[in-house]
Amino acid sequence: MSVDYTLNPKRELSAQIAAAIRDSIVSGALPVNERLPSESELAEQFEVSRPTLREALKRLAAQNLIRTLRGATGGAFVNRLGFSDAYGQQITTSTLLLSMNDVSFETACEARYALERACVPLSAARRLPDHLATMRAEIRRQGQPGLSDESFCDSDVAFHRALVDGAGNPVLSYQLAGAVEGMQPLMNMITFSARNRTRIIGFHTRIADAIEARDVATTEGALQELSAHTIALAHEVRDARAGFANQPK
After folding, report:
1. Which homologous superfamily does the CATH classification assign to the domain defined by 83-245?
2. Sign of CA pseudo-dihedral 192, 197, 201, 203
3. Could you give the angle at the alpha carbon of 91 between the alpha carbons of 88 and 95, nearest 5°?
4. CATH 1.20.120.530 residue window(s) in the chain
5. At residue 73, what are phi and psi to the nearest 5 degrees?
6. Number of C-alpha atoms within 13 angstroms, CB side, residue 12?
7. Among 71, 87, 168, 237, fewest CB within 10 Å belongs to which?
8. Where in the chain is the domain with CATH 1.10.10.10?
9. Could you read off the pLDDT tens digit of each residue along the chain, which spans 249 residues?
10. Domain spanning 13-78 has what CATH number?
11. 93 and 127 Cβ atoms separated by less than 8 Å
């Protein structure tokens, strides 16, 4: 591998090296399963120390772009990155963006359900028995006595993830991983104290029934109502907290 790349000494060298190698992978200059040059060769090529080069390789490994094998035939190899491998990064990024920036609950909720509704026509047409079985199983789980709030939230995410995956489009599933698994837990944390589980189960049952019947309009309507209900709960919680904070001490 030869990368025509000039490092900027004022910026972190390992990050620049990782970016250069990543660009070569994305462009196809480094194909899947290609073995990268040795550490010493790469260090010489980029004119950096071995520790700096190793840090760059660690960055690439953390992104699942390369894998390292030991032994005489070992070394660093280009990975075939699958959508499932990238889900975690998408979820983490979405969660961090929402928690670290001034994004209102309403904005996050609007985006999350708008994206999910976009999957409904495909999910209604393509859902498999396994997707329906998962949705039904999560509905049953949500109705279990003594189910903790954390477990209910996990089940909520799994239900909606099955709806999205039913669209049979891995690109959509990847893009919506952040919306469903990144936004949903944050919304659950805000609204769980005011949530009526029976009502949520009712929404989920309507959605599952409509998807099984391939009824797009009813599914979209139930998701729209669920979105409005979630925002209303958030307002109730916010008003209650404000009232508590303003009580005389």
Report:
1. GntR ligand-binding domain-like (1.20.120.530)
2. negative
3. 140
4. 83-245
5. -100, 15
6. 8
7. 71
8. 13-78
9. 555 577 888 889 999 999 999 988 888 888 999 899 888 999 998 999 999 999 999 999 988 889 988 877 788 999 887 777 777 777 777 777 777 777 777 888 888 889 899 999 999 999 999 999 999 999 999 999 999 888 888 899 899 999 999 999 988 888 887 777 777 656 666 666 667 899 999 999 999 999 999 999 999 999 999 999 988 888 887 777 677 666 665
10. 1.10.10.10
11. no
Is 115 within 8 Å of 164 (Cβ atoms)? Answer: no
pLDDT of residue 57: 93
> Rounded to two decimals, what is the model's pTM?
0.72
Q: How many whole angstroms separate alpha carbon 128 and alpha carbon 83?
A: 19
Number of residues that make up the chain: 249
What whole-number distance in Å separates Cα of residue 101 and Cα of residue 128? 38
**Structure token pair of residue 116:** 């999910």
Six-digit token pair at 162?
Answer: 């099955």
Give the residues across from 68 on adjacent strands. Answer: 76
- Cα 91 to Cα 70: distance, rounded to the nearest angstrom: 31
Which H helix or E strand runs over 188? Answer: helix 184-191
